Amino acid sequence: MEVTGRLYIDGSWTEGAGKRFEQRNPARLPEVTGTWPEATEAEVHKALAAAESAFREWSRAPAVKRGDLFRKVLAGIDARRDELAAALTAENGKTLKDSHAEIQSGYREMEFQVGEGLRLNGRTTPSIREGIFSYDVRVPLGVVSVVSPWNFPFNVPCRKITPALMAGNTVVLKPASLTPRTGELFVDLFHEAGFPPGVISFLTGSGRSVGSKLVTASEVRAVSFTGSTEVGVGIHKRASGQMIRTQLEMGGKNALVVLADADLEAAAEAAVTAAYTCAGQWCTATSRLIVEAPVYDQLLRRVVEKAKELKIGDGTDPEATMGPVCGSDQVESIARYLEIGKSSGATVSLGGNVAKDGKLAEGCFIEPTIFSDVTRDMVIAREEIFGPVLSVIKAESLEEAIEITNESEYGLTSSVYTRDIERAMRFVTEVETGFTHINLMTSYREPQLPFGGVKMSGFGLPEAGSSGIEFFTEHKVVYIKQ
Ligand code: NAP
Ligand code: MG
Predict the structure, then answer these.
(1) Which of 1, 178, 220, 285 has the smallest count of CB within 10 Å of its CB?
(2) With bands split at pLDDT 50, 70 and 90, how would you rate the model's confidence at 1?
(3) Selection from 190, 225, 214 nearest residue 58 by Cα
(4) What domains lie within the chain, and their CATH numbers?
């Protein structure tokens, strides 16, 4: 059924006054899932003005009141899981199982950040003089913009918007144009829960027009963005010129390092899960598998065997374990990397093509691909592909494996598989990523710890954990003469 998508401004849903754009199901491109408004300049300004005027009252409400409203959102997520998962699969393509997993992880992020919002403590600090009492409190910033990506259109808003609102800010959300429906349903949970008008608004439309306005508008105090490094860097340049603070979660080229003494079965399982879940379109995906020479052939064989078991298909098909990539632009971009890989001299150990068999031809399907004999200078070893493609690289030693891991311009996540605690800890100490793992896949994470990258993968305070809410507040210091 085709949805007539809407904007949410000042507590009301509207079809908008501007042009509309189509969204298509990546498993069956002829299927239009809905049309969405391109928010006009006037609508952007109306949303920002509503956010600005809602701020005063919202920021003064006790956090426990905000928490009570969030508990209704959590109950709403619980009640509407199937609807949310179906919408997510229809527009993103991931399997229903992966959609349910994303909803559950968003739920956990929200739950944790609600708790953080109830513990927004300041500090009293002994004065250096007699008769002076001093302390600091954490205060919200004002209006904040959230620009979200299409690969985790539910989890990312949960992780960004909960701390922003719990701290007392008001929010304008712009979803990726490939996944507006998930964003609309997310915001509807807030509408149903009874959040006051203007506290959260929802504007669809292109990044270049609507997104651009939201990251430089005079009402906006902070921008939290997840997406590509190129767009993130551009946003930072423009926003910082206006003294708007930014939190950027961007690209990655994550490495899983397997040393010769590792549990190879566990390492192969981790590589395949992290490389192909969500068709490789998660920022924490393993895209480089760096293997110590003595076990290179053996591990490669196991990884190929496991990846062969993946069954690509429509995400609603219970048999499918890997869905399509999200849209024809992704197919084009990944297909280009498949050609680059082949012509650079890497060996195609599995897949290597756009999948066109039977019904797959209607959608955006890419074969799970493994390139072996990849050398560190090759483009497929260096650039983010953001698809179901794994590059397997041989390293002669732990030192070389660390060197290869760190020569990437990115630094989001990494893993090492080994039973040797000394070698594992050396990896942990020397690796240049925002988070890392020993004997766990590169994608493993929990909501109570910060999530963010270094180098070109991340900028500003990380999301989640205790830094999630820190980003959305500033310190006000008070001195009192007794
Ligand atoms: P993208 O093109 O950067 O888009 C991300 C968001 O930014 C979308 O909502 C997009 O809107 C908007 N946007 C585009 N241009 C803009 C501009 N000039 N000003 C303001 N907003 C703008 O990235 P994507 O194609 O959605 O996602 C893929 C990338 O995201 C990958 O590189 C991946 O690594 C990265 N990613 C990183 C993380 C992480 O946490 N590190 C998580 C997920 C994804 P439109 O959709 O309308 O263009
Ligand atoms: Mg894009």
Answers:
(1) 1
(2) confident
(3) 190
(4) 3-250+457-481 (3.40.605.10), 254-446 (3.40.309.10)
